[in-house]
Design goal:
The protein is of the alpha+beta class. The protein is 43% helix and 14% strand. The chain contains 26 helices and 17 strands. The chain is globular, with a radius of gyration of 24 Å.
Length: 625
Amino acid sequence: MCGIVGLLNFKNEDVVDRKHIQEMCRVIAHRGPDGEGIFIDKNNGLGLGHRRLSIIDLVTGKQPMSNLEEDVWVVFDGEIYNFPSLRIELKSLGHTFRTQSDTEVIIHGYEQWGLDVLSHLNGMFAIALWDRKRKRLLLARDRAGIKPLYYRMTTTKLEFASEIRALTTNGNSKQSINVTALNLFLRYRYTPSPLTLFEGILKLAPGTRLVLENGGARVELWGKFQPRPFDPAPSFADAQEGLLERYRVAVKSQLISDGPVGLLLSGGLDSALLLDLMNQNGNAFQTFTVGFGTSFSDDELSEAAYTARKLNSPNTPVMISKKMFETALPKIIETLEEPVASPSVIPMYFLCERARADVKVVLMGQGPDELMGGYKRHLGTYYGGYFRNLPPPLSAGIRSLGKCFFRKDSVRRAINSLFGSDRIERYQNILSIMSGAIIDGLFQDSVLPTSPGDKMLECWEGLFPLMKDTDELGGFQFLEVRSWLPDALLLYADKLSMAHGLEVRVPYLDQNIIEYVEQLPSCFKIRNGATKWLHRKICRQLLPREIIRRKKKAFAANVVDRWFLDSRNPIIQGTLMDHDSLIYDYLKPQAVHLLIQQHQSGFRDNHKIIFSLAVLEEWLRSAAA
């Protein structure tokens, strides 16, 4: 895993200043502390830069890397997990390899298959490939969106990088704010691809590529998997065996490293199963767990320690205090570059910092909740059809009860979403933390363009044709896995781990697992009111009973909620209650203060939007610095 940067002067082919690329590399040096490489194509106005975190082929795997003729050049961030088999295949086709790295597979794969090389790769990656003969620049992001890739294009040049900060250096520090993206962030807690909160800076969506050639540029979806239900559907036993086998293959392939590999271990099932699967390929993997202490009932330190003992692995606890949270939040938001309003960003930052002291690579158990239906929203989505078939008077009564008796706006919206006639609109309601009308009402007059919430549909529209054969739950998960998961959860996992020079791998998001699960009937995921049904069957097969019986926890959200209930919280007093705060360049102070008052009085649970507002203020301050 590494960091990449580049610049192409496609209009006049001016020679790229090497110092420019060096400066772009310098600001992302944390991503690759083990070395730097630069390539300048003086005849074509191109510069590529690479910061290396040495994981595989420590000696000959340096980038930028080229073919023997030096007319194809590559820099890439990530890992290609199927590179051993691709290497064998390409050798049989006559290609000669000079290194043992996965990078070289991309080069020879491009020589063999052209742009279609991407469909042969199984891994996490952000790739920049320069074809000198064709004067073609290819930028590409992996199917699951595990690795980010940002770019900015003018009428004369294209700049790209693994992180936004590399695009705002070299005298480009002042950036305008995209208020439509800001509106979407407050509604959904993240900024959907291809948008960022910086006007003019975009990010490639998962499974997309940008191709610049012949005087034009195009952005297109290359990862076009279209889920179609298995016909006939497998038996439960066959599905369990098929999914477990894919888990095993993914974990084995992602343990490849020339150094030790660790695990981010929670007290839950997903990371416990991951540890068991890792142990089938070795033993004594170092595990790392974060918590807030026993004063919080949802703390997972003791449960994770128990899991590690039962599975014969050492465990290192990391304790977070309220003071650490308040002090570190500005630094963490600056590290993220894009605001992501998940309370988990705080523990993730400290967890990665501690893990890096012992290992360069860790596995993480992200994925089963989104793929297999692990959240309450999946229950509502799955059973929503029953509510939509109720007689109108009864459905109206249920809606009225939701308005009267639930503190959480998310619950009220979830109830309303059960009855909507358009499924895409239902999905929007489920993913948003407040209605579009409430969010729009926070903004000062004349700040927002017309119908800013509709921009989310534009971000998703390329996916709609691929989900036409999905059922209600499958369609929602299809969007969730390609939007919320990569643009929020995987984004902060990448930024916060790479800030410490730590590579995080996500075996459950292996493409073969995603494609298999997305073709399974929804009744394999939600069954008799139970979530992640098939996944839990596998857990029961492999894990001790004491681990299986644990209830799901969301400790970070609960801790943050408790802290925000404290009216003396310095984050609230120093940001949201200060009329000079930067958010009030866009928002109405009285509207924000009302949300805080409602929450602190217990009238309404607004902790998600309050945390989002605090994150936004810190982000605006870091962007203005």
